Amino acid sequence: MVTIKDVAKATGVSPSTVSRVIADNPRISLDTKKKVRKAMKELGYHPNVNARNLVAKSTKTIGVVMPSSADKSLQNPFFPEVLRGIGTVTHDMQYSMMLSSGGTEEEMFAEVERMVYGSYVDGIILLYSRMNDRITNFLREKEFPFVIVGKPYDYVSEITHVDNDNYKAGKEITNYLIDQGHEHIAFIGGSRDLIVTMDRENGYKAALNEAELPVCEAYRIHSEFLQSGGREAIEKLLQLEYSPTGIVVSDDLMSLGVLSALEELGYDVPTDISLVSFNNVYLSELTSPALTTVDIQIYQLGVQSAKALIEKTQSDFVPEKRIIIPHEIVYRDSVGER
Amino acid sequence: MVTIKDVAKATGVSPSTVSRVIADNPRISLDTKKKVRKAMKELGYHPNVNARNLVAKSTKTIGVVMPSSADKSLQNPFFPEVLRGIGTVTHDMQYSMMLSSGGTEEEMFAEVERMVYGSYVDGIILLYSRMNDRITNFLREKEFPFVIVGKPYDYVSEITHVDNDNYKAGKEITNYLIDQGHEHIAFIGGSRDLIVTMDRENGYKAALNEAELPVCEAYRIHSEFLQSGGREAIEKLLQLEYSPTGIVVSDDLMSLGVLSALEELGYDVPTDISLVSFNNVYLSELTSPALTTVDIQIYQLGVQSAKALIEKTQSDFVPEKRIIIPHEIVYRDSVGER
DNA sequence: CTGTTAGCGCTTTCAC
DNA sequence: GTGAAAGCGCTAACAG
Question: CA nearest A293: which of A133, A150, A172?
Answer without folding.
Answer: A172
